[in-house]
Amino acid sequence: MHLERRRAIAGGMASLALLANLPATAQSADEQAVARAVEALVQAMLEPDRAKLEPLCANALSYGHSAGRIETKEEFIADLLAKTAAFRSIKLSGQTIKLSGNEAIVRHVMDGETESQGKVSPVHIGVLQVWQRQDGHWRLLARQAFRL
Q1: Which domains does the chain have, with CATH numbers?
Q2: Radius of gyration of the CA atoms of the chain, in A
Q3: Closest C-alpha among 130, 142, 140, 134 to residue 53
Q4: pTM above 0.85, yes or no
Q5: What distances in angstroms separate CA 36 from CA 7, 40, 43, 56, 137, one per listed residue?
Q6: What pLDDT, in 10s, does the model give residues 19-68?
Q7: Which has the closest alpha carbon to 139: 80, 48, 53?
């Protein structure tokens, strides 16, 4: 009986250890909506389409590239449509979403490839995005990429 008690305690401790590694809470509905907006932006960047990009971006968008270039909403969309540096692939990892009222702070690592003038270049950057709820929709207000 003493051995059975030890096994039961050990099993209980193992279960607690597994639970400790789970997130404290599941994503809220707003966090899920922001995550969907981030994914929609990724898809619109891979297959640029003004009709898909426009509603995802706030009019006051400040879009910062890892090389230091800053673009407005109009410049960001025009650059994607011109395909001067077209995204061939984008993969996000380590994403976190923190809500603060009508704003959401999103951080992730972005890996992928771009193609410019026939040359393919790898992308490995950190990204900070600020999304704002406007008229019931999450819109990208600010984005800053940085070299890792």
Answers
A1: 27-147 (3.10.450.50)
A2: 21
A3: 140
A4: no
A5: 44, 6, 11, 11, 11
A6: 444 444 578 999 999 999 999 999 999 999 999 999 999 999 999 999 99
A7: 53
